């Protein structure tokens, strides 16, 4: 196959990208989007600050633009993200305790209800685990509402949209380490207690090759009975093309790895300014990394 989406589809997988609503008028951007990708994630437009700028007042304009553009071009959508300690609207940053918990759950319910039946999966909770060696939760006002906030969010999302796969999404979880093991233990616990969780997202913001146990780490999560997804892939460094190939082959080697999403289209679209971590250059030309990904998908 000659495009990323079609090549991934040969093994039943998707190939996606983050999309910014403000770029949907850029014809180079939209041409690549429509040609190459079969899954879309809103880069910012479905986050809490965007969707509930004032408490109880919801704004789906940016998210809906992205979703409608995707669906009308035959693509699916990953919802991102219902609860995250960053990009909380100002009004929520000032809340705590039961008042915040109520606002969090209402947010999950309202947004998941708005997109009911329309998204492939939701990142229900994003980046809730701490970096470093503790393997524990990150401190945040969300966490301070009680350690059960994550499972409460997953249950509320399931109730609101039973058809969406519900994911936990995080970064620096690319190999077996304290952080990924903390998440692994949470997923295992959720599965044993019947808390609804269907997938784990590995953001994979990388510099050079992924850790040597990248595939093994994906596999240990898959063995818990959840889908794994590579959700925000971008790779800096001189061996970028090789590293992209390695990541792609790792996903292909894990039966429950459903697909790969890159965090933007062209290098100039990336949040990693100056690092040129994506598959297309600023003019929209395919880079060497594009070819290693396409070749890996076609070889599977
Ligand atoms: O929308 C405002 C705009 O009105 C204003 O003029 C401008 C001035 O700074 O800011 C705009 O908001 C920015 C927004 O991106 C949209 O461009 C925010 O300042 C900026 O902080 C925000 O950055 C996003 C970042 O998440 C927020 O933490 C990046 O685009 C986005 O790529 C990034 O994505 C995250 C994932 O959601 C989660 N994982 C990590 C990943 C990278 O940080």
From TrEMBL:
GO MF entry, a single one = polysaccharide binding
- Keyword DNA repair attributed: no
Similarity comment: Belongs to the glycosyl hydrolase 10 (cellulase F) family.
The top of its lineage is: Bacteria, Bacillati, Actinomycetota, Actinomycetes, Pseudonocardiales
Q: What is this protein called?
A: Beta-xylanase
* Domain GH10: start-end pairs: 1-296
Give the Enzyme Commission number: 3.2.1.8
Active site positions, chain numbering: 232 (nucleophile)
Q: Which UniProt keywords apply?
A: Carbohydrate metabolism, Glycosidase, Hydrolase, Polysaccharide degradation, Signal, Xylan degradation
A GO BP entry is:
xylan catabolic process
Q: Which reaction does it catalyse?
A: Endohydrolysis of (1->4)-beta-D-xylosidic linkages in xylans
User: To which species is this protein native?
Assistant: Amycolatopsis balhimycina DSM 5908
Identify the segment of the full-length protein shown.
Answer: 38 to 337 of 468
């Amino acid at each position: 196959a000659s495009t990323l989406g079609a090549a991934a589809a040969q093994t039943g997988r998707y190939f996606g990208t983050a999309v910014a609503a403000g770029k949907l008028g850029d014809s180079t951007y939209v041409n690549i989007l429509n040609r190459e990708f079969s899954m879309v994630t809103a880069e910012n437009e479905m986050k809490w600050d965007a969707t509930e700028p004032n408490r109880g007042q919801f704004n789906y304009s940016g998210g809906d633009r992205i979703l409608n553009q995707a669906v009308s071009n035959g693509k699916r959508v990953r919802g991102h993200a219902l609860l995250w300690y960053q990009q909380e609207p100002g009004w929520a940053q000032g809340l705590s305790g039961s008042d915040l918990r109520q606002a969090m759950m209402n947010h999950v319910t309202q947004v998941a209800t708005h997109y009911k039946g329309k998204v492939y999966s939701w990142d229900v909770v994003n980046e809730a685990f701490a970096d470093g060696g503790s393997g524990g939760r990150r401190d945040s006002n969300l966490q301070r509402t009680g350690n059960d906030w994550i499972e409460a969010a997953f249950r509320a999302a399931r109730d609101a949209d039973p058809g969406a796969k519900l994911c936990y999404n995080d970064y620096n979880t690319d190999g077996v380490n304290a952080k990924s093991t903390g998440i692994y233990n949470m997923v295992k616990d959720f599965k044993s207690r019947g808390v609804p969780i269907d997938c784990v997202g590995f953001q994979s913001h990388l510099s050079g090759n992924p850790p040597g146990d990248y595939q093994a780490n994906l596999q240990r999560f898959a063995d818990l009975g959840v889908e794994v997804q590579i959700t925000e892939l971008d790779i800096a460094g001189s061996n970028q093309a090789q590293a992209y190939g390695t990541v792609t082959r790792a996903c292909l080697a894990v039966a429950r790895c459903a697909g790969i999403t890159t965090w933007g289209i062209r290098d100039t679209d990336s949040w990693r300014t100056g690092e040129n971590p994506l598959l297309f250059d600023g003019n929209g030309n395919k880079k060497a990394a594009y070819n290693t990904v396409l070749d890996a998908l076609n070889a599977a």
